Amino acid sequence: MIVPEYDLNDIVEMKKEHPCPSRSKIFKITRMGADIKIVCQGCGSMVMMPRSSFEKRLKRVLEHNEVERES
Question: What is the C-alpha separation between 12 and 70, in angstroms, rounded?
Answer without folding.
Answer: 24
